[in-house]
Amino acid sequence: MKYIKKVLGGELRQYTMVIALAALIIIFNIISEGRMLTSSNFQNLLSGNAYVLILALGMLMVIVIGQIDLSVGSVAGFSGMVMAIVARDFNLPWWVAVLIAIAIGLLAGAWQGFFLAKLNIPGFITTLGGMMIFRGGVIWISSSISVPAPSELKWFGAGYLPEWGPSFTGMNNSTLLLGIIGIVIFAIKQIQNYKHSGDITGQKDSISVPIIRILIVGAVIGYFTWLFGSGRPGTSFPVPGLILLVLVIIYHTLTQRTSFGRHVYAVGGNKSAASLSGVNVKKVYFLTMMNMSMLATIAGILFVGRSTSAGPADGTSWEMDAIASVFIGGAAVSGGVGTIMQTMVGGMVMAVLNNGLMLMGVGADKTQVIKGFVLLAAVAFDVYSKGSRNESIVGKIFGKKN
User: Fold this and answer.
1) Residue 99: which residues within 8 A CB-CB, separation 6 or more?
2) Alpha-carbon distance 396 to 398, whole Å?
3) pTM, two decimal places
4) pLDDT tens-place values along the chain, 402 residues long
5) Which of 3, 79, 233, 238 is packed most tightly, with the most Cβ within 10 A?
6) Which of 122-128's residues contact partners 24+ apart within 8 Å by CB, and which partners?
C-alpha cells in the first residue's frame, strides 16, 4: 500500500473525482450497452463540450480571485452574433469577423473589469448587470432571428484533424502523432521529476515509481488515441478539442509558472496581504475579467461554427456549467485554491454526465436535477476533505496551488 501511495503521489481518497469520472464512463458504457465508449460518441462529446471547458479555464481564474462571472454565456452569445452579422451584412472575410468578435469580447471584459477594479463593485453585481445587458443585446441586434455563420468556421467548431501518411497504422495519423507527443512529454516530465525527487528529502524514489506512472498514463493516452483515431473515415481527434488542448497548456503555464499567475492566487488567498507585498490587486482584477470575456468569445465562436449559425438563445446558462466545472474540480468558494487540470477533470465529469444521461434517454429536466445534486455532493465532499486537513479533491494528481 505504501508503494501504491508513492506511485499515486498520496492517499487514494485524494483521487475521488478522477475515480468518479472513470466510474461514470464505465457505468454509462454498461447501461448504454457500449454506446458510451465509441469513437463517434467521444468525438461528439469533446466537440460538443469544448466551449464549456474553455469557459471553465477563465472561470477558474475569476473564482480563484474570489469573484464570479455570470455574464460569460451572454457575452459569448453576443460576440458570436456580432461576428455573424458583420460577416453577412458587410461581406467581410471570416477572419476579420472573428477579430471583431474578439475585440468585442475584450471590450466587454474591460467594461466589467473597470467596475470591479476601479469602482469596487463586486463581480457578482457587475456581471449580473452584464448578463442582462448582453443577453438583451443579442436579442436586439438579431431581431430574435438566427444568422448564418461563415462556412469557414465549421472546421473550427466541428472539424477533424486531417489524414496523411501510411494506412497500415489503422487509425488517423494526425491523432496517432498527437497521442505519441502526449506520452513522450509526460514521460520526459516524470523523468525530470525523478532526477530531482531527492533534492529536498535526501531520499530518491525507486526508478520503478516514474516507470509505472508512465505506463499507466501512457496506456490511458494510448487508449483514447485509438478511440479518437479509429472512427469512421474522415473523422479523428476534433479540432475544438485541439484548440482546447492548446489553451489548457497555455493557461496551465500562465497560472503555475508566471508572476501574474502567482498574483492571481495571492489575491484570492489574502487580498490585503497581497497588496502589502506589492501586488497590484486592481490590475489583477481587471485583467482576469478581461481574460474571461475573451475566452467567452472564443467559446462562442466555436459554438457558432459547430451549429453553422448564431442564434438569439446562444450562451443561455453556459455560465452555470462553467461554474459547476470549477467547483467540482475542487476550487474553493472563498477563492485562492484550484488549478487548470483539476478544473478540466471537473468539466469532463459534467460532460460525461450530460452525455451519459442523454444516451439513457433522460430528459433535460431530470438531467438538471441530477447535475445539481452532483454539484452539491462534490462541494460538500471537498469541504469535508479540507476540514479533515486533506488536499482538495484532485489536488494530489496535478498539484495544488495556494
Assistant:
1) none
2) 6
3) 0.91
4) 555 656 666 555 557 788 889 999 999 999 999 999 999 999 999 999 999 999 999 999 999 999 999 999 999 999 999 999 999 999 999 999 999 999 999 999 999 999 999 999 999 999 999 999 999 999 999 999 999 999 999 999 999 999 998 888 889 999 999 999 999 999 999 888 888 776 555 566 678 888 998 999 999 999 999 999 999 988 999 999 999 999 999 999 999 999 999 999 999 999 999 999 999 999 999 999 999 999 999 999 999 999 999 999 999 999 999 999 999 888 888 889 889 998 999 999 999 999 999 999 888 888 889 888 888 887 777 667 666 544 443 444 444 444
5) 79
6) 122/67, 123/62, 123/67, 123/68, 123/69, 123/289, 124/67, 124/68, 124/70, 126/289, 127/68, 127/69, 127/70, 127/71, 127/72, 128/70, 128/71
Residue 275 buriedness (CB in 10 A; 0-12 / 13-18 / 19+):
middle
DSSP codes of every residue in 136-153: HHHHHHHTT--EEPPTTH
- Angle between helix 318-328 and 340-359 (nearest 10): 120
DSSP secondary structure letter of residue 348:
H
What does DSSP say about strands 147-148 and 309-310: parallel, antiparallel, or unpaired? antiparallel
Q: Angle, to 10 degrees, between the axis of helix 318-328 and the axis of helix 364-387?
A: 30
